[in-house]
Design a protein that fits this description.
Layout: E1 4-7, E2 10-13, E3 20-22, E4 27-28, H1 29-38, H2 40-47, E5 51-56, E6 66-68, E7 81-84, E8 93-97, H3 101-108, E9 112-116, E10 127-136, H4 142-158, E11 164-167, E12 173-182, H5 184-201, E13 206-207, E14 219-222, E15 232-233, H6 252-256, H7 268-278, E16 292-293
Parallel strand pairs: 12-16, 13-14
Antiparallel strand pairs: 1-2, 3-4, 5-6, 5-8, 5-9, 7-8, 9-15, 10-12, 10-14, 11-12
Helix pairs in contact: 1-3
């Protein structure tokens, strides 16, 4: 019988809580749900108002993984959904918005990563985020990503844009910034321009094209996630890796001091302490008054 729990007055069904999702650490589905529930204060503000794509891995990272963009069958009627634009060939679709703790616990029961667009559902034609995904091609590591991130920080600052770093929760880094007054197309073009500049400035280290043969030993500066249809892992989401790694905000001091490939890996059990000591390092992104217009 599926247990039912009450969360802020909503009845939420939770299933298979004893299932081990991460065999190397013994991390269970119950621990995953607990992680999301106890991190809600930091996570929810980064989800609110944004259509969510779920990367689901109900049998753990070694099992089947699949993206869910449309509202899943069986979604409770009290979960907020919204019609959102898709490509010209697909037409609009209806997606979930995780707006509150009951919705977050319900979504956690799906066993999922959370991925969001760089725009709000109330204004889908205007990007409010700029993102760079720094992806190292072996033998490059996150250490090399940190070098590239520091270059991008200074280059963005020259345009009056403040960047905030977080781990990808896998092997790279993400840089996010709050922007205003631009379409996704304009933001993508700006990001691509900076990626090209980075490759020119750091030719032994950076590649801006996705071509696999160009990427070994270099950091791919993925600017394409600024496209309106693309999504990026939300701050504090768990990732479908061998350990319960988190896409965790980090300080620039941590980026500057990164000296080994495991130096910027954070697991679910690390996040409560970091939030107590550092707060939400990405909270400034939620303040619309700091958003910067692109040059």
């Amino acid at each position: 019988m599926t247990p039912i729990t009450e969360v802020e007055g909503r009845r939420v069904a939770l299933s298979n809580l004893e299932k081990v999702l991460y065999p190397e650490s013994g991390f269970t589905k119950a621990e995953l749900v607990h992680y999301y529930a106890t991190t809600a204060g930091a996570l929810l503000p980064h989800l609110r108002g944004r259509a969510v794509s779920f990367l689901r891995y109900p049998d753990g990272p070694d099992g089947q993984r699949f993206f869910t963009k449309n509202v899943p069958p069986g979604t409770p009627e009290w979960v907020t959904t919204a019609e959102v634009p898709r490509s010209a060939t697909e037409g609009p679709g209806r997606m979930v918005l995780v707006q509150d703790l009951p919705s977050l616990v319900w979504a956690a029961n799906l066993v999922a990563e959370f991925h969001t667009h760089q725009w709000l559902v109330e204004s889908p034609r205007e990007a409010d985020r700029l993102v760079f995904d720094l992806d190292p091609g072996a033998p490059a590591t996150v250490v090399h990503c940190c070098e590239v991130a520091l270059w991008l920080r200074e280059r963005l600052a020259a345009d009056g844009i403040t960047a905030y770093p977080k781990t990808a929760g896998s092997k790279g880094l993400h840089l996010l910034a709050a922007v205003r007054g631009s379409s996704s197309e304009r933001t993508s073009a700006y990001a691509k321009g900076l990626a090209v500049e980075a490759e020119r400035a750091l030719p032994r280290l950076v590649v801006h094209r996705m071509t696999k043969s160009l990427r070994p030993g270099k950091v791919f500066v993925d600017w394409s996630q600024n496209a309106a249809r693309k999504t990026t892992a939300t701050p504090y989401t768990l990732r479908a890796r061998q350990d319960p790694l988190v896409s965790a905000p980090v300080t620039w001091e941590e980026v500057e001091g990164c000296g080994d490939a495991g130096g910027l890996e954070f697991r679910a059990g690390d996040i409560a302490r970091r939030l107590r000591e550092l707060g939400d390092l990405m909270a400034p992104l939620l303040d619309a008054t700091i958003a910067t217009a692109l040059p």
